[in-house]
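Supplementary Methods, section 5.1.

A reviewer requested that the exact input to the structure prediction be made available. We therefore reproduce it here, unchanged from the version used in the analyses.
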Amino acid sequence: MTQNTSAGTAGRDVDELHRRIERLSGFLAQDNGNEMLRRDLFDALLAAKDFARAMATAEEALLAPPGGAGWIYRRAIAARLAGQPTEAVAALRGLAEGGVNEPSVIIELARAELDAGETGSAIDRLQQLDLTALEPTLAEQAAVVLLPALMGRGQLDQLIAVSQAFLTKHPQAARVMGILGSAYVDANRISDARALVQAARQHGISEPNLDAVAGFVALDAADIGTARRDFASSLRQAPGAGRAHLGMGLVEAYENRLDAARAAFERAVAAMPTHLGSWHALAWVNLLADDVDAAEQAFLQALDKDRNFGDTYGGLAVIAARRGDRNAAQEHIRTGKRLDRFSVNVGVAEAMLAQHGDLRDPGTLARAFEMFQERALARSPLMQASFARLMSKKLKNEPRH
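The structure derived from this sequence is encoded token-by-token as follows.
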């Protein structure tokens, strides 16, 4: 009943937005020089996700006085949202090179550069801004563009330092807290993540990423029921939250619902296609289901995103060993060890090759995981350790706790 009411309300809101667009269009037709009307129409078109018409509105404004930088900026926003980031980058760089260096332009240019795959340029540009000197709204906008870019580059130490400095001045910035908490989880700083969640809740701060962080904290403590509730809360607020889908997949895997786990991980990689941990989770759950081909494809997707991550080569070595291909496994092990001599996946593959008997026997993989439980726990309780436990119990047909 509540969902139907919400859907009806949303439908009425959309209808009202379209009626507003038509009214504004009519007024503008009668008063084509009215800048306020044109800006209101542009904003309404963005809200309606009618980006092509928003771009056309901006183009019409540029043909008539006063035109100018403001409409170049607005058209670039619409172009980026319409999936044309390269065009947006060119327009916004033209503004910046022409001396229009307001923070809002720099932030939007960085967004466009990220969408165009120019992550390094976006990071460099945003780091030239003094976030602590900006007014709070702009400062948070800049932070929530910069911080995920740093995370995508694996620059967790820098992300954490920038976030902590930002929160010193803006302690109620919920989105920054959520990103910082996610970085703590990725860096295996679970006690810091726990303290951040507790502080946020004491101040009544709620945010989807923070709920997902709370879920990972609960998962680390093997409190599966609380973890499920926290991940579900995150997804209610933000159905596309990739980290919450990742966490929910871990919960489902712990409870031996492998089909549900696989579906959750597939949603995670769709939402976060460059997040290696999600691809690895999808690979391991496919191994749990004895779908070696699907597991290999997930590891290959991770490799496509980053060819310098040792654990991915370790995963491919496990796949090769599982198929009985000792030579291919050894080649992947050599590459993985060169990149990360402490790689858990490489260690598991080495342990498989060191055993006597048929590499294709599932017991070979189970024994390898048992040998590397301690290393997995020390390296990442939320990922490798989780799947080490799961693989061992699944392959030995032990009951799941």
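The first helix runs from residue 2 to 30. These observations are discussed further in the main text.
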